[in-house]
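User: Mind token order:
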Amino acid sequence: MPVEGGSSGSSASAARHPKQKRKAHSLSIRRTNSTEDRPPGSQRADMLEGQDSKLPPSLRNNLLDLFGQIEREFESLYMENVELRREIESLNERLTGDGQNMEGGDASKGALKTKASHSTSQLSQKLKTTYKASTSKIVSSFKATTGSRALCQLQKEYVAHRDGIWDLSVTRTQPVVLGTASADHSALLWSIETGKCLLKYGGHAGSVNSIKFHPTEQMALTASGDQTAHVWRYMVQLPAPQPTPDVSAPCEDEQDSSDREEAEADGEGHCEAPTVRVATATLKSHQGVVIAADWLVGGRQAVTASWDRAANLYEVETSELVHTLTGHDQELTHCCTHPTQRLVVTSSRDTTFRLWDFRDPSIHSVNVFQGHTDTVTSAVFTVGDNVVSGSDDRTVKVWDLKNMRSPIATIRTDSAVNRATGAWCAARRGTRRTKHATSSPAALTGRPSAGTSTSPPCCRRNEPWPTHACTHPST
């Protein structure tokens, strides 16, 4: 009896399982068939009904509505694509039929084929134009406009220096000439129009690191690695402007360019203009390289900045030292004077720049600004009441003289800033492998060097700046 009971129980359970499977299968069939006549939203709800989900019903319904909208939009796009394909096929068949009907005439056979091919190409071009127009609105938001790009081209070359060019300046009075300071121990004056070298100053024994012109007289102020700054007079006569070359003429420029390069390689690119070797005044009180110098307003005094961590104020007529401006913790990198007020700004490797005020003869105040996190390579005045500072921390900051607690603007660059100008331009540090001076602040790449020995000035290993690359006559 127990055995029979056990066997009958097992057979009953085995019989129940097929019934449950058949019941579930029939239920699934009924659900599938019943959804054919129901709206799409309810169909998707039934499809997800048996799925295990932890989402709230309201959220699931919203998702289903969104998916439904996406599906309808895709369906409309798909139908438009199908219609366009049909139109293209009908047009192609029509063009092919027209060409076959007229194929009997030999004279017009080639013309018809050409016409059909031309019509097809026009249709293809029209489709491409339509596609580009539809996507231009999206792509245009990621592209920079043409007007925002700075377009630059070479206008003039000034060839005569034998080493790197550290600084350039333009006179404020007539005649208007360009001045360049170079590591080849010389400063040159140029005709801007013709590019001809007019005068050479060779009074320094080291690299000439900066050049500034007197505001009213024909005098120049140069700072050098020989630990001095020189004031020297010049007299130049501008040559007659040359006629504009004819662009339609044969390629004579290529020959001239190659000849010029060969002459430079042979060391023949030197300046044949008159040379001035005696300074009107020599400003010497520094114990290190004089990295920069500038005229104070009025031109009676000059300020110099040096690697000995000090800036000096001199009387130009007597070469007398008036003030020694100390306070920087490391080497100075630049100095600049205000164009209309007795203000001086100096920058240093100690990450600061200082504003010195000499407007009151009895009080010489100084303000220290710590807006940068690395060497402040330069700080200059603009035409207005602003100061622009550039730094190795890859930023250029603009300050208001009336409120210099924080900069009014910060410009970030992708490399260290070598020199800032009054026009809010910044030149990036790089290496100079050219003997040409240009009239752009971007030419001020590299670092000035001492050059107080007979060896090439830029190859001294005791300078705090990174060694720069330059071209020597001996290499």
Summary: The first helix runs from residue 2 to 34.
